[in-house]
Structure formats: structure tokens, C-alpha cells
From TrEMBL:
UniProt keyword Signal present: yes
Protein name as catalogued: Leucine-rich repeat-containing N-terminal plant-type domain-containing protein
Keywords: Signal
InterPro entries: DNA_repair-toleration, Leu-rich_rpt, LRR_dom_sf
UniProt xrefs under SUPFAM superfamilies: L domain-like
Gene: A06p051260.1_BraROA
């Protein structure tokens, strides 16, 4: 019977430490070198996923020896077999709830537990998961699990990796991270967690990666997040977080990836960040946040920056083209969907390097400085007109205005104003050139 498929992997890793035990381990009556409790726990786990019809004791009396089970790997230690890896294929039942099974029997030795890519696994996580206190890695990725997280997960203080991404979990995130001193990766993304972030999140002093993206979290980032001095990635995109950045995130000098897009940020909070102090940043995404005002000049000081997303905001003013072009690592720049004005002064070489990774369209009053290039790799930015063809439009009247011949004299000042009007009416076009000389005497 084959039940191994490449779609799902339930990965269990055991590390058995039997040194110092005074009694010999009990082995099976048929002479197979495996403890009875070990074999029963293995059978119970498999049966919990494949159903009661699976009879391991009859089919595989020696699962690591002369009757091996497909998907089970073992190591020999002190002349006894111990399970090191268990790989289960796709669960064909479409509504199989995750029951308690025999997790408690495995709890004293289990170090890694993974459920991956199986929407057929549904229901809440069992409370008994909290008994797996030796777990170093818990990965529940892209399944159908739902409901609130059991508070017993707070017992898993030995975790180094904690991933619950891509499920249907709801409720608040438990406020019990004060004991997770060794945790390196916390990924709770792509669920439906709500409420504010727990205050103890800043006590995970070893944390390298924090991904809370695509949830319904709200409020401000807790002040304690500034204590995560080893954090390299912070991703909170697509939540409802409203503040706590300028006072906290700016202090995390180790950050390389900062993704804040899609949050209704307090504008004063965001624009108050001194970006030049975050010189380690490689990826910075501030898109879809309602940002206003000029592009922060501090961004032009981030010499390691490779990706900068400022699109779909309400930014105004001119683009610091020359300063941005001097960033040696910049490979993607998105400023489209704003109210930026003036001329883009990027060079041909810059556009050749960026290719399609540069977007500046949907800025009505932004134009591209005229570039003459014979290079085949040069593609002018889409959605931008050359500045020579830009016109200021007001209703049905387009007016191009230029000031010329500004002269100053000791007793008077004069100003020549040339106005070119193009009037569009009834499908006909007339060009009228009026030259007005205005002399204003100042006494």
C-alpha cells in the first residue's frame, strides 16, 4: 500500500537521549530491535492520519528492520532502532480534523514537527501540542487549520522556529513570548489574527525574522519591538497597524528587510523617521500607506538599498533623481500612483539597469527629461510624457506660459510675459500667439 506523495510532508524528527538510564529498554516479543512504546507511538501517529483500517502491527511488525514502512526512516542507537523521520503523503479525506493522537507519547523526544501544504487538515491545533516541550521547530504551513491558538503553545519555550503561516487561525496572538529566548523565526503570516500585538514580543531577544503580514492586526507596534537588536526582517504588510514606527523601528539598526505596505499609518509618525539611521536596509516597501509630502531625503542615503517601493501614496514634490541614481545597489524603484511633479532626470544608464523594475506612471504632472539614445537596451519609462510635450491643463483651455526678458532697472522693473493659448472648440483648433509687454513702475 503506497501512501507517500510529494504534495504533503509531515516531518517528525526524534532525538533520543537514553544515557544515564539504569534499566534496559523493553523490546518487542518478536525480537525486533525497537521499544514497544516507540513502535506503538509510531503506529498511532500513522493510523491517526490514514484511518482505523490501517493495521500496522500485522503488516509491519518490524517497521525499521526486515518489514520497513515506506516513508519511515530510522537510526540505530545502542543496538535499538529509533524513528528519525516520518513522511506522510497527501491525506485524501477532505475534512480530517487534527485529533490529539499520541503526541504525549512522543513528547519527550520530538524535536521537529511539520505539517505542510494540506488543506484537508482542518480544525484547531490540539492542546496536547503544548506537551512537546523539546520541540525546536514547529511548522504548520498552508493547511486548513482554524480557530484560536491553544494557550498550551506558550509551553514551547525551546522553539527556534515557529511557523503557522497560510492557515485560517483567528483571535489574538497569545501574549506569552517572554519565555521564547531562543526563537529565531516567528512567521504567523496569511491568517486572520486580530487585535493588537502582544507586549512580550520584544522579549524574543534572539529573533531574526518576524513575519505578521496579511492578517487583521491593529493598533500600534509595541515599544518593546525596539529591543529586537538582532532582527533582520520585519514584515507587517496588509494589516491595520496605525503607528509606533518612528519611535521603535528606527532603533533596530540590524534590519535589512522592512515591509510596511498596506497599513493606515499615522502620517506624522512615518514622515518623522530618520531613514539615514537605518543604513543596513536592503528592501524597503512603503507602498499603499497614504504617505504625503516630499519623498524623504534620508532614503537617498541608504547605500545598501536594492528595492524601494513608494507607489500608490499621496507623495508630492519633485523626485530626487540624481541622488537616487547614486545608490550603488538600487535595482528596483516604484514611485507610480502619486502626485509627484517636475522632471525626472535619470540617465539612460539608469533606465537600462532598471528595465521593467522602474515605474513612475500615474503621476499626472511628472515628465521625463528628453533623452536621445541609440542603445537598444534603453526603454523610456512607460506612462510618462517627455517634458517637451507636457502641458498644463485647466478645463478646455491649455496654456503654456513662459517668463522671459526679466529686466531690472534702478527706478523701475519690467516684465515681459509671452502667453501661448491653444483653444479647442467644436473640434477645430486655432493657435493664437499674444505677446504682452507689462511694464510696472514702482515708485
Amino acid at each position: 500500500m503506497s501512501w507517500i506523495h510529494s504534495v504533503l510532508f509531515l516531518f517528525l524528527v526524534f532525538r533520543w537521549c537514553i544515557a544515564g538510564e539504569s534499566s534496559s529498554p523493553e523490546v518487542t516479543d518478536d525480537g525486533a530491535p525497537m521499544e514497544i512504546s516507540e513502535r506503538e507511538a509510531l503506529y498511532s501517529t500513522i493510523q491517526g492520519f490514514l484511518g482505523d483500517s490501517w493495521n500496522g502491527s500485522d503488516l509491519y511488525p518490524d517497521p525499521c528492520g526486515w518489514t520497513p514502512i515506506q516513508g519511515v526512516s530510522c537510526d540505530l542507537y545502542d543496538d535499538l532502532w529509533y524513528v528519525t523521520e516520518l513522511t506522510l503523503g497527501l491525506v485524501h479525506e477532505n475534512s480530517l480534523a487534527c485529533a490529539a493522537k499520541d503526541w504525549i507519547s512522543l513528547g519527550s523526544n520530538l524535536e521537529s514537527l511539520e505539517f505542510r501544504s494540506n488543506p484537508g487538515l482542518i480544525g484547531e491545533l490540539p492542546e496536547t501540542f503544548g506537551s512537546l516541550t523539546n520541540l525546536k521547530s514547529l511548522v504548520v504551513l498552508e493547511n486548513g487549520f482554524n480557530g484560536k491558538l491553544p494557550t498550551s503553545l506558550c509551553n514551547l519555550s525551546s522553539l527556534k522556529r515557529f511557523v503557522l503561516a497560510g492557515n485560517l487561525f483567528t483571535g489574538t496572538i497569545p501574549d506569552c513570548f517572554n519565555g521564547f529566548k531562543d526563537l529565531l523565526i516567528l512567521d504567523l503570516s496569511r491568517n486572520s489574527f486580530s487585535g493588537t500585538l502582544p507586549s512580550t514580543i520584544g522579549e524574543m531577544v534572539s529573533l531574526l525574522k518576524l513575519d505578521l503580514s496579511n492578517n487583521q492586526l491593529e493598533g500600534k507596534l509595541p515599544q518593546g519591538i525596539s529591543f529586537l537588536k538582532n532582527l533582520t526582517l520585519l514584515d507587517v504588510r496588509n494589516n491595520r497597524i496605525s503607528g509606533g514606527f518612528s519611535q521603535n523601528v528606527e532603533k533596530i539598526r540590524s534590519l535589512t528587510d522592512l515591509v510596511l505596505s498596506g497599513n493606515p499609518m499615522d502620517i506624522d509618525d512615518m514622515m518623522g523617521i530618520k531613514w539615514e539611521n537605518m543604513g543596513s536596509l536592503v528592501v524597503l516597501d512603503l507602498s499603499k500607506m497614504g504617505l504625503r509630502g516630499d519623498i524623504p531625503y534620508g532614503l537617498t542615503k541608504l547605500k545598501r538599498l536594492r528595492f524601494l517601493g513608494l507607489n500608490d501614496n499621496e507623495l508630492t514634490g519633485t523626485v530626487p533623481s540624481k541622488e537616487l541614481e547614486t545608490l550603488p545597489c538600487l535595482g528596483a524603484l516604484y514611485i507610480h500612483g502619486n502626485n509627484l511633479t517636475g522632471e525626472l532626470r535619470f540617465s539612460t544608464k539608469f533606465y537600462e539597469k532598471m528595465g521593467t523594475r522602474f515605474k513612475a506612471s500615474k503621476n499626472p504632472n511628472l515628465c521625463q527629461y528628453d533623452i536621445v539614445s541609440e542603445s537598444r537596451s534603453y526603454v523610456p519609462p512607460l506612462g510618462l510624457k517627455p517634458c517637451s510635450k507636457m502641458k498644463k491643463t485647466e478645463g478646455g483651455l491649455v496654456i503654456l506660459q513662459t517668463l522671459r526678458n526679466l529686466k531690472k532697472e534702478e527706478s523701475s522693473s519690467s516684465m515681459s510675459l509671452m502667453v501661448t493659448r491653444r483653444v479647442l472648440s467644436n473640434g477645430l483648433t486655432w493657435d493664437l500667439l499674444l505677446e504682452l509687454s507689462l511694464i510696472v513702475l514702482l515708485i
